[in-house]
Amino acid sequence: MAKADWIDRAAACADGMVEIIRARYPDVKEERDPDGKSIGHLYFMALTLCRRELDSDTKACRWLGYLQAALVFLGLPDLETEKERNLASGDVHPTPR
Q1: Each residue of 24-80: pLDDT tens digit?
Q2: 67 neighbors 49 (Cβ within 8 angstroms)
Q3: Long-range CB contacts (< 8 A, 24+ apart) of 36-43?
Q4: Distances in Å between the alpha carbon of 60 and those of 8, 28, 47, 75, 93?
Q5: Run of H or E residues at 87
Q6: What is the DSSP code (8-state) at residue 38?
Q7: Max Cα distance, the chain (Å)
Q8: Please, what sign has the CA dihedral across residues 64, 67, 71, 72?
Q9: Which of 1, 11, 23, 47 has a Cα-to-Cα distance from 95 of 20 to 30 A?
Q10: Is 47 exposed, middle or buried, given 0-12, 13-18 or 19+ CB atoms closer than 10 A?
Q11: Nearest in space to 13 (alpha carbons), one of 50, 58, 66
Q12: Which residues are CB-contacts of 3 (< 8 A; sequence separation ≥ 6)?
């Protein structure tokens, strides 16, 4: 059985983050913010990861790290929850592209 790559793993992690953002900010809209600091921009990043729109493992990991750090800073998930999410993402099945 093929192993999930980092794009698949980032998508699996981001899926949970989309739910966290929607629960806390039910009216959130996806937006690209040049400063990358708005909740709408974080939502955009999470959705982009979920849709597997990034073309490199390195970029997916960089986006995931930024997104996780920003959400932990906002107090949405805690660091331990995100560590567990990262570990669990190793069990996802790869998505054919």
Answers
A1: 999 999 999 989 889 999 999 999 999 999 999 999 999 999 999 999 999 998 888
A2: yes
A3: 36/66, 37/70, 39/74, 42/67, 42/70, 42/71, 43/18
A4: 9, 22, 12, 22, 17
A5: helix 79-88
A6: S
A7: 41
A8: positive
A9: 23
A10: middle
A11: 50
A12: 94
E strand or H helix at 41? helix 39-50
Is residue 94 pLDDT above 80, yes or no?
no
53-68 pLDDT tens trace: 999 999 999 999 999 9
- pTM here is 0.86
User: Dihedrals φ, ψ of 43, to 5°?
Assistant: -65, -45
Distances from the Cα of 65 to the Cα of 29, 32, 94, 97, angstroms: 21, 18, 20, 23
